[in-house]
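Changelog-adjacent note: as of this version, every example in the card shows the full chain rather than a window. The one below runs 210 residues end to end.
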Amino acid sequence: MNLPMILGGLSLLAFVKGVQAASKPPIRTIYLLGDSNTAAPDYTNGNEKTSWLAKAVQARTGAKVYAGARGGWGVKQVREKYVPEIQKIKPDVVVAWLGVNDLSSNRSLDHIVNEMKLLKEQVSPSRLVILEIHDWGGYPRGRDKIELTDQANYRLRTEVGVPTIRTDSLGINGKIKPEYDGDGIHFERPSKSVAYDVIGELIMDGLMSI
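Full-length structure tokens:
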């Protein structure tokens, strides 16, 4: 193959990639929907003004970030509380990081998956993206749910019909990595910035691929 043909092929590839990128809807606004890890440090009423995660995501994406989160709540509780606000704001993307409290409360995998499907319908036309359930086997209630967590993530990945962002890199052997771990389920060691910077990067990379 001669040089002009190679250069022509590269130019065509660059053109195709440019067209594909231009065809993707822009992400100008993001709504983070979650439980205590999204709400932190204000576990009872997390919002974009206080949320460590919201600040990390905004710093990395440049998008306007909103947050609605409550510690201890599962998918249904969070959905019922914050969907009305999402419907008013109409963000480009909703990132849901939920499910660990449902597993902790022994709710079924069917419950989690069905609630996520309902969430997908209710936030439309905003696009739903799921940040998968992180490893939490170091937490007392999570010690016997390592395999169940993997099953939940597989079903979220294959049944809800939305993009998912994997959280494997945050854990090891079913537990949060020691450098991030606060109590087995929260990301607060040795400082909030370490884990939330990493999670912010995960979300940014995930959104760039959708």
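Structural remarks: The chain is about 50% helix and 15% strand.
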